[in-house]
């Protein structure tokens, strides 16, 4: 049973969700557990709404319709899968062209290109899809100046925000994905301290429990697609942030969906971890 979010005595909160990857029926389950987006129950979906799962059109249209109905009830970040190259390989392009046509796909790409790359919650929590810039001294002001309305370059600030992953040891290393870098706890500490922040929340990686806390409690990965690609057996999770910006986690299992396999519209069978 979803909470009664019209109760004015409830304290304000924000719900942060990670990758949903075309798992439309699991998105509906999030709303069953946590209530629909509204001014009293705002959401931040942290990228990778599409690809992999074969109900990506339904996911992104639902999120955009909520955004149109009330811009303050839902916030959408760009992920590395809100890009032309990934959509061509991992199913969204094929799905849109099967359900609509080329023109609609181009319109989706235009929308994706203008989505925000990051947000700051309560002046304390930095939220972005992938991870942190690996070059020292990057400020929030520099991130705000990143040019949108384009496909991501292979390197630089936009690439880091969309693609980077945390690693347990200090410094930076070439990413196992073949794009971007992995960043250590020292990079997290430096970025947060330099920008007056306390916590990084990112998504981009499947986690067995739906979330993982790393880097001495300063980095959280949240992933909201349970039993990813109908094969991983993981839980999904989302995070509540109230006024104190302390994370509170909710986990859940996958729900049934119509018999359309993941990647049914994909042009190429890429790996599970891109």
Structure characterization notes:
With 274 residues, the protein is of the alpha/beta class. A hairpin with a 3-residue loop joins strand 4 and strand 5. 27% of the residues lie in helices and 18% in strands. The two termini are 34 Å apart. The chain has a 5-stranded mixed β-sheet with strand order 3-2-1-12-13, with helices on one face. Strands 4-5-9-11-10 form a 5-stranded mixed β-sheet.
Give me a quick take on this structure.
The chain has 274 residues and is an alpha/beta fold.
Average pLDDT: 94
Kindly state the percentage of residues in helix.
Answer: 25-40%
- Principal-axis shape equals globular
Q: Uncertain regions: pLDDT < 50 for 5+ in a row?
A: none
Proportion of residues in extended strands = 15-25%
Q: How many strand elements?
A: 13
Give the radius of gyration.
Answer: 18 Å
Element order: H for helix, E for strand? EHEHEHHHEEHHEEEHEEEEE
The helix-and-strand class reads: alpha/beta
Helical segment count: 8
Q: What profile does the largest beta sheet have?
A: 5 strands, mixed
Strand order of the largest sheet: 3-2-1-12-13
**C-alpha end-to-end distance:** 34 Å
Write the layout of secondary structure elements.
Elements: E1 14-17, H1 24-34, E2 43-45, H2 56-69, E3 74-76, H3 84-90, H4 92-99, H5 102-113, E4 118-121, E5 125-128, H6 140-144, H7 157-163, E6 165-166, E7 172-174, E8 181-183, H8 185-194, E9 199-202, E10 211-214, E11 219-222, E12 236-241, E13 247-252
Parallel strand pairs: 1-2, 2-3, 5-9, 6-8, 9-11
Antiparallel strand pairs: 1-12, 4-5, 7-8, 10-11, 12-13
């Amino acid at each position: 049973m979803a909470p009664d979010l019209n109760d004015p005595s409830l304290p304000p909160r924000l719900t942060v969700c990670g990758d949903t990857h075309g798992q439309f029926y699991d998105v509906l389950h999030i709303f069953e557990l946590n209530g629909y987006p509204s001014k009293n129950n705002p959401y931040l979906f942290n990228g990778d709404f599409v690809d992999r799962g074969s109900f990506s059109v339904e996911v992104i249209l639902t999120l955009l319709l909520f955004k149109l109905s009330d811009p303050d009830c839902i916030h959408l970040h760009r992920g590395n899968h809100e890009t032309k190259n990934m959509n061509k390989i991992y199913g969204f392009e094929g799905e849109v062209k099967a359900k609509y046509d080329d023109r609609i796909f181009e319109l989706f790409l235009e929308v994706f290109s203008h989505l925000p790359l990051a947000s700051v919650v309560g002046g304390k929590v930095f939220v972005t899809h992938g991870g942190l810039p690996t070059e020292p001294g990057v400020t929030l002001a520099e991130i705000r100046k990143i040019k949108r309305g384009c496909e991501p370059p292979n390197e630089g600030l936009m690439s880091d925000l969309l693609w980077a992953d945390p690693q347990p040891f200090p410094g930076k290393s070439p990413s196992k994905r073949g794009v971007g870098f992995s960043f250590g706890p020292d990079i997290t500490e430096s970025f947060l301290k330099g920008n007056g922040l306390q916590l990084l929340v990112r998504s981009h990686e499947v986690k067995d429990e739906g979330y993982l806390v790393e880097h001495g409690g300063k980095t959280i990965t949240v992933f909201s697609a349970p039993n990813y690609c109908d094969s991983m057996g993981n839980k999904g999770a989302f995070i509540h942030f109230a006024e104190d910006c302390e994370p509170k986690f909710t986990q859940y299992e996958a729900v049934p969906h119509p018999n359309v396999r993941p990647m049914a519209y994909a042009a190429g069978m890429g790996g599970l971890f891109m």
